[in-house]
Design a protein that fits this description.
Keywords: Membrane, Transmembrane, Transmembrane helix. This is EAL domain-containing protein. This protein has 22 helices and 16 strands. The protein has helices spanning 3-32, 36-77, 90-95, 97-122, 132-144, 162-169, 171-195, 221-236, 264-280, 291-313, 350-360, 362-383, 396-399, 404-414, 428-433, 436-447, 464-469, 479-482, 489-504, 517-526, 542-551, 553-560, and strands at 152-160, 202-207, 210-215, 239-241, 244-246, 249-257, 286-288, 316-325, 331-342, 346-348, 390-394, 422-427, 451-457, 474-477, 508-512, 530-532. It is elongated, with a radius of gyration of 42 Å. 30% of the residues are buried. The strands form three sheets. Strands 8-9-11-12-13-14-15-16 form an eight-stranded mixed β-barrel, surrounded by six helices. Helix 20 links the parallel strand 15 (508-512) and strand 16. The longest helix is centred in the first third of the chain and has 42 residues, at 36-77. Helix content is 58%, strand content 17%. The protein is α/β, with parallel strands linked by helices.
Length: 561
């Protein structure tokens, strides 16, 4: 019989006994007591007795339930101390068996949920490898327990060309590829364990297509570099992915403890820096962190910090380099070149800071300053009667801004500068990859009088069919193409072919960085229209440039032409 039913029967028997006792008590009182006062006292006594018995019958189960609930409350309060294992008290099981069972089930579900949450918080759901948090925690423990003279190594692995897989096959296929990569890394780790008696290395997926390995014990630098090469070879093998043969690679950075750091954070930073150097060298290889990389990294950090304040401090300047017609010897244009007057280091070459500005996105703000300065200079020249056309570079980061073209137009309108005095230069790769909306905006600028140029042609990505359809007027040869035309027949053949190609799509050819008269003569014979370079004029600041154009441009132009 269930305990709840027994309790009900017990209460019913007690109530029945109280009723029978009250009946006999009242009967005896009325049979043997004749006086009114005595009858009244007997009636009150009988009623009080009945009330007492009824209260006991009703309070008995209530008190048991109250004690059971109090005990259950104490058990639930123990959860604050982390107790999710102890069962409900026995009194709860005796008086409220269903509630006790429900509490058991609830605690079991909570424990399972916590375990799942801990697993999700410590492991990557795609590859089932430890995640960044778990990796750092375990690596810290291994570093802390290492012998004083022990050497360890951190490897940072970044996949090459993985983004192309996601873009072409979708993120679901990309996740499958990550699982395959993780399995190959596991094979390398397992092979290393079988070949050595060292402690097991850690393998984790940090984020995206980034993996990391920590080897708590290594025999030598050569040994860990051998492992890095093995990883690069393993990842370079084609992957079969749902009928597609996928070729990717891996750029691997290697950092050693204690050589490059004694903490997980410092080792990961060093390995990350080395990985980026490996990627800049073409990928598919490893790079060991060294003092040169550390110095380059610190310079980059310092440059980024200084660039963020350079615009506000007015440290940028524009230099102007004339462009000369090889056919007539006339000044046909000028390019505005960015210069940074660093407060401690003086004038810095664009090669030192433009790539950093591009990668950090600061180039967009710098580009806004350039447009403002070009508009201001052209406005001043225009008011002075100097109808100079001025070219300036546009960064791909600027094209990402939805309001770029509207702001550009507004800058020249405010200075009263017609677009016929403006020339915009786009890099070859940016022009080829521009969206149809961007191309339409460029075409509209060209229709309104602006000239459009492709800069550094010959080093980026070229689509000849797209080149023919782009709204462009001039194509500027990259300096690397013409550097050897004086002494190399192959270089001359290449340049001649490129010039014919550009002329074939109806564009003017401009050669920049021309340094000798011999180069100018060869380019003229090849049909190049315009040159720009030290052969006749170096970049000058505004005052010097205006004086040069007034006083000596004619004689210089005639001598070069």
């Amino acid at each position: 019989m269930k305990e709840g039913t027994a309790q009900k029967i017990s209460n019913a028997l007690l109530s029945g006994a109280a009723g029978i006792a009250s009946f006999f008590f009242s009967l005896m009182a009325f049979l043997y007591i004749t006086e009114f006062d005595e009858q009244l006292v007997a009636s009150i006594t009988a009623g009080a007795f009945c009330l007492l018995v009824s209260y006991i019958a009703s309070e008995r189960p209530n008190s048991e339930s109250a004690r059971a609930l109090a005990a259950l409350g104490d058990r639930l309060m123990a959860v604050e101390d982390g107790d999710l294992v102890s069962p409900p008290p026995a009194i709860v099981r005796q008086n409220m068996p269903k509630l006790a069972t429900a509490v058991d089930t609830l605690f079991a579900e909570v424990r399972a949920s916590i375990e799942n949450a801990q697993a999700l918080g410590m492991y990557d759901p795609v590859t089932s490898l430890p995640n960044r948090l778990h990796f750092r925690s375990e690596a810290d423990k291994l570093l802390g327990s290492a012998a004083p003279a022990a050497r360890s190594a951190m490897l940072f692995v970044d996949l090459d060309r993985f983004k192309g897989v996601n873009d072409s096959l979708g993120h679901a296929r990309g996740d499958q590829l990550l699982i395959m990569v993780a399995n190959r890394l596991r094979v390398v780790v397992t092979a290393e364990l079988s070949e050595s008696a060292n402690r097991r290395p850690l393998l984790a997926r940090l984020a995206g297509d980034e993996f990391t390995l920590f080897f708590p014990e290594i025999a030598s630098t050569e040994d860990i570099e051998r492992i890095a090469r093995r990883i690069a070879v393993a990842i370079s093998e084609p992957f079969e992915l749902y009928g597609h043969s996928v070729d990717i690679g891996a750029s691997i950075g290697v950092a050693l403890c204690p050589d490059h750091g004694n903490s997980v954070e410092s080792l990961m930073r060093a390995a990350d820096i080395a990985m980026y150097r490996a990627k800049s060298l073409g990928g598919g290889q490893h790079c060991l962190f060294n003092d040169e990389l550390a110095a380059d990294y610190q310079r980059r950090i310092d440059t980024e910090k200084a660039l963020t304040e350079a615009v506000q401090r007015g440290e940028f300047m524009l230099a102007y380099q004339p462009q000369l017609s090889l056919q007539t010897g006339e000044l046909v244009g000028t390019e505005a070149l960015l210069r940074w007057n660093h407060p401690r280091e003086g004038l810095r070459s664009p090669r030192d800071f433009i790539p950093i500005a591009e990668s950090t996105g600061l180039i967009a703000e710098i580009g806004e300053w350039v447009i403002s300065e070009v508009a201001s200079a052209l406005g001043s020249w225009n008011r002075d009667g100097l109808g100079r056309r001025l070219a300036f570079n546009v960064s791909p980061r600027q094209l990402d801004r939805a309001d770029f073209f509207a702001r550009l137009r507004q800058a020249f309108v405010e200075q009263g500068v017609p677009l016929s005095m403006v020339e915009l230069e786009f890099t070859e790769t940016a022009a080829m990859k521009a969206s149809e909306a961007v191309v339409a905006e460029i075409a509209a600028l060209r229709k309104d009088g602006a000239r459009i140029s492709i800069d550094d042609f010959g080093t980026g990505y070229s689509n000849l069919a797209r080149l023919r359809s782009l709204p462009i007027d001039r194509v500027k040869l990259d300096p690397s193409l013409i550097a050897d035309i004086e002494g190399s027949e192959k270089a001359r053949v290449v340049v001649q072919a490129v010039i014919h190609l550009i002329q074939g799509v109806g564009c003017e050819v401009v050669a920049e960085a021309v340094e000798t008269s011999a180069q100018a003569d060869i380019l003229r014979a090849m049909g190049c229209h315009t040159i720009q370079g030290y052969v006749f004029a170096e970049p000058m600041f505004e005052g010097e440039y205006l004086a040069w154009t007034r006083d000596s441009a004619g004689a210089t132009n005639r001598s070069v032409a």
